[in-house]
Each structure stands twice: as C-alpha cells, then as structure tokens.
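Message: Study each token:
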Amino acid sequence: MSTLTGMEIFFKKEYQQFTGSFKERGARNTFMLLSKSQREAGVIAASAGNHALSLAYHGRDLKVPVTVIMPLSAPLMKVTLCRHYDANVIQYGSDFGEAKEYATTMAQETGLVYVNGYDDVPILAGQGTMGLEIIEQVPDLDAIVIPVGGGGLLAGTALAIKTLKPHVQVISVESDKCPSWQAAMDAGRPVATPVGPTLADGLAVPTVGYNAFKTAQHLVDRHCVISEDKIALAILRLVEMEKAVVEGAGATALAALLGGDLDELRGKKVVVPLCGGNIDTTVLGRCLERGLAADGRLIKFVVRVNDRPNGVAELTRIIGGLGVSIKDIFHERAWVASDIFNVDIKCVCETRDFHHSQQLRKALEEAYPDRVDWRSQVHSSTSSY
C-alpha cells in the first residue's frame, strides 16, 4: 500500500478487536463508569451493528443487561451475533434514525441508560484511547486519516492526538451517500442529512453528534467526501494485498488515499485506522465485484456479430487470444433492429488490469467497427498495479 500511494502507511487494525471494530473502546469505558444501580438496570442503544455488538459482548462480560434497537436494514450477521452475546435485540425502523428515535423513547419509559454510540462523553473518551496508542506506536507520524459517521472516533482520536502532537494533520473522510459531517461543517452545527444506500453502512448516520462535532470541529485540518467506487476498490485492495477483510466503513480512509484525494501526503508517515471488519459474506462478494469494475478489471460490453456459423466463435477467439476471461455471455436476437442475420452478444469479461482492458477494447473496435457498445465506462484507477 505504501508503494501504491507513495506514502509510508501504518494500519491501525481495529477490525481485529474481539467484536470486529473500534467500538469496544467506548463501550467498555461506558460500562466501567456506570453506577451500581445503572448496571443492575441495564442499558439500551440504537445501532446498525458495531456499537450494538460491542455493548452486547462487554455487557455479557460485565453482567450488564443490554437492549439494542437495530434497523431492519442492519446486516444479518451483526443481528445474529448480538443475540449470541445474549443481548435483547429489537429490530425497528427502516434506518438508523428511526431506530434511534424508538430507542430513546423506550429508554425514557423503562428507565434504562441510553448509550449514544458516537456522542456520549464516555464513548468519545473511550474511542480516544486509539489516539493514545497511535502516538505510542508511531510517535513521528505526520498525519492520520479517519472515517467519520457520527463523529465519535474522530472527536476522541483527534483530541488525543492534537493534545500530544499539535502538528499532526487530522483528516476526516466520509461517503458521498451520507455526507453528514460535510453538512455540519457547512452549517456550523449538526444538521439532518439524507442517507442513501452505501457500502459504508457503519458511517450512515443522518446527523452527527453534537458533542462530537463541537469537540472535533476545530481539530480537523481537512475533510474529504468520496465515492462508493473508491470504497469498493479499497476493500478489494485490502483483501488482495493485506489479506484483510474490512467492511466499507473501515476501508473509507484508505479509499481516499488510493483514490488520489490526498496526494499532498506523499512522502509522509500516515496512519490509517481500519475501523471494522464486520461485513456480510454476500455484501463482501458484491464489494469485490464492484471493486474489480472500478479498477477496470471487470468490464461489460455488447458487440453485434454475424449470426452465422463461426460468428460468435470469432468473437471468443479474439477475447481468448488476449488472455481475457469471459465471466458471462448472452445472445440477444429478438430485439436487434438491423439485419436479421446479426446477433447482439452481451459479455462480462475479467482482465488483468486497466491496460489489459484497453487492449481488448482496441481489438474489438478494430474487428467490429461501430458495432461495440461499452455499457460501463472503463476508467483507470489511480492505484492500479
């Protein structure tokens, strides 16, 4: 990764925590600060997954009853694990915002302590321990790039690092499908932001935390909003090069580096937290395919060939001759508007890299002039290898 980006990269592997994310830090700290009566009564929280997992695991360890409200869109794996850790799991709402509203109402009715996963002060303090560890492990770092959803990790870590090393550059990153931190910076306060479907589901928080925002507002030196394709590519790179399975939210910081958004950090020591690894296997498969497409290694096109003997054979000969693998192929005859002796061949192919894809494109356009339709634009990744 350091060679690809031109930076000296240090990964903080939070996905190797027992429940697979940094959220354990804040959860454990919160439980340790509860009074005896609060511990006996238990806590309640809203979470799409990682916060719920951390509370469930440490709640069982410390014998604190835990209730978690998870949206219907929460990954199945995370819901199942929370139940495995003996948490009382209630699924409610189409998104995190609706789940949170239900949880706060239930907390008021039952007297349970509501634990905000990104805005309670004990949570922020707990997440800040990651910053302290980073200073010990990489004392001469130049910058840290942190994914931001609700802002708890960013606030706690930024405060710890800036207090001890004021010169270190703190950069936050989020997906363009839920740019709630950018919206808060533009408005000068947390504001509600529309949430779209995103690979970084752990960052999909409609409104950032007020305490988190006030804490980190003047500590963040730069903020980046990145596309989903870059996140998918980062997940792919981590699997291929680091043998690490990291969820979309956890790979978002690396995505900004691989995508060329932070080229001013070239030649510097940069810490990248890989914040979580809780990703469904089905979602992982989709992410890897999307990453291959973003990298120009999975391409889709339609080519019109002669529907006579050897017509399709000639096409596959060209493709195979270049060492390109055909992943899917489909014949379309009924909706071809031209000569009835033509057929549209829809192909999905896998290549070695972007340059290999360009070789295929050139060969096909020479063999079938004006008869190739590239349905998905092949573009070069700044991090191709």
Q: What stands out?
A: Residues 9 and 270 are 5 Å apart (CA to CA). The chain has a mean pLDDT of 91.
